[in-house]
Structure formats: C-alpha cells, structure tokens
Amino acid sequence: MITLDQLTYAYPSGLGLDKINLQIKRGEFVCFMGPNGCGKSTLFNILSGLKVASSGTYAFQQTTIDATYLKNAQQRQRLHQQIGVVFQNSDTQLFNLTVADEVAFGLRQLPLAEAEIERRVNDCLVLTGCRQLRERVPYHLSGGEKKRVALASVLALNPDVLILDEPLNGLTPAAQHEILALLTTLQQAGKTILIASHDYLQIKTSAHRFVVFNEQHQIAYDIDRTSLATKPELQKELALL
Ligand SMILES: Nc1ncnc2c1ncn2[C@@H]1O[C@H](COP(=O)(O)OP(=O)(O)OP(=O)(O)O)[C@@H](O)[C@H]1O
C-alpha cells in the first residue's frame, strides 16, 4: 500500500530522513519510534502529502506521490481523504466554533448531502466518545478531548490510512487506553494505522510492527511484535526512548 524507496528529506539545516526504504501493507498497525528529531513527523508529512521528498520515491497504492502529483488539487484532495492525520498539536487542527462543525468541516468540502454529513458527524462523535462535546468550542476543550475531536474529524472522511503523531502525549492512562482500544477496533475494521510514540510500554500490545529510527534519520530496526518479544534487550532500549 505504501512503498518508500531510498527516500531522503533535507531541511536547509540538515537531514530529516536519510535513504528510507519501507513497505507497509494495508491493515498493518505500525508504531514509529526513535529519539527526538529522528524524523518521524517528517515522514508523516511526506506520507500525507504535506512535504515532498528531496530524493527517492514514495508510492501510495502504486501511484507515485511527488510534486507533480500534488500540484493537481483534485489528486491532492483525494490523497488527503485517503490518508488522515492527527497532528501532534491538536490546536493546529481545530479551528471551528463548535465540535460538530469541526467534524463536519472536511465533509462539507465534498459533494455530500447535509443529511449524510449529519449522519457521519454523529457516527464519528459516538465512536470517539465525543457526543456530549458536540456544541462545545474546540479551543476550550482539555488536551485529551481535543485529541479525540481531532480524531473524529479525521475519521469523518473515512480514510484508508490513519496517521497519529504522538496521540498519547499528555493523556491520562485511561484516555490513552481508550484511544488505543479505538485504534485496534479501526485496524480490525481494515484501516492501516501508523502511529508515532515514545511510550513503548503503553503501545507494545497494540502495534504489530515497530519501526525504530536512529539519530542519523535512518531506520535502525524494523521488527514485528512476535520477534520483538524474543529480544528483551531491544525491548529495554525501546522503553527508554
Ligand atoms: N521546519 C524545520 N526546519 C528545519 N529543520 C527541521 C524542521 N522540522 C524538523 N526539522 C529537523 O528535522 C529533523 C527531524 O525532525 P522531526 O520533527 O521529523 O523529528 P521527530 O522524530 O518527529 O521528533 P520528535 O520525536 O521530537 O517529535 C530534526 O533534526 C529537526 O530538527
């Protein structure tokens, strides 16, 4: 579903990603880990079409996603519908006056009847436990509530791939558990889940594959949960990230 071949991203100040080779199949639940600044957010920005690789290639469902592809507004919109992103800082993502409008915002850019929009908004608010927040101002919500509303607004577009950058940060253990349980349900429904997390102990039973970057912005380990279970030293290393 996703193929990166020798993908490099260079900021003016230095590398964000260095010659990344990666394949992700539909329905995987992958956790991206690594030290601060190793390149996880840069990778997510490339996958979602917000940044374009400096060199190497990115293909999504056998289509090369490059500057030419993204220049076309329709193609760009299709990619944004297929790959939904919950950003690290929910404040950058929430700008409507009510939670219901926030969740409906993306849907209103599509040719959908108001009744269908209302149905999808309700479904997503229920799924993410946000029904009672419907008329609240997103900006006034708690960190955990904002995260759930951001997730609801992304889910409303029914993306095939869900990218979540540090979705557990700042949440109580109970809220973290709820988000992970929801992500597992979504994966079981066929979604591909890509998550960045520093919290190995919290994520270790949810993710099925762990891709770990090093400080040189390269992939140091790409390992499935079963193999990782036989490597206590590596597990210890991940728990310290
Ligand atoms: N806008 C930018 N301009 C210049 N350099 C940047 C920019 N954004 C990121 N970088 C640099 O690129 C590298 C990768 O950053 P990135 O944000 O992708 O890492 P990360 O793994 O998501 O980090 P964290 O775990 O702290 O969120 C870092 O060295 C960072 O300083």
Automatic annotation (TrEMBL):
<keyword id="KW-0813">Transport</keyword>
<keyword id="KW-1003">Cell membrane</keyword>
<dbReference type="InterPro" id="IPR017871">
    <property type="entry name" value="ABC_transporter-like_CS"/>
</dbReference>
<dbReference type="InterPro" id="IPR015856">
    <property type="entry name" value="ABC_transpr_CbiO/EcfA_su"/>
</dbReference>
<keyword id="KW-0472">Membrane</keyword>
<comment type="similarity">
    <text>Belongs to the ABC transporter superfamily.</text>
</comment>
<dbReference type="InterPro" id="IPR003439">
    <property type="entry name" value="ABC_transporter-like_ATP-bd"/>
</dbReference>
<keyword id="KW-1278">Translocase</keyword>
<dbReference type="GO" id="GO:0005524">
    <property type="term" value="F:ATP binding"/>
</dbReference>
<dbReference type="InterPro" id="IPR027417">
    <property type="entry name" value="P-loop_NTPase"/>
</dbReference>
<feature type="domain" description="ABC transporter">
    <location>
        <begin position="2"/>
        <end position="240"/>
    </location>
</feature>
<dbReference type="InterPro" id="IPR003593">
    <property type="entry name" value="AAA+_ATPase"/>
</dbReference>
<keyword id="KW-0067">ATP-binding</keyword>
<protein>
    <submittedName>
        <fullName>Energy-coupling factor ABC transporter ATP-binding protein</fullName>
    </submittedName>
</protein>
<dbReference type="InterPro" id="IPR050095">
    <property type="entry name" value="ECF_ABC_transporter_ATP-bd"/>
</dbReference>
<keyword id="KW-0547">Nucleotide-binding</keyword>
<dbReference type="Pfam" id="PF00005">
    <property type="entry name" value="ABC_tran"/>
</dbReference>
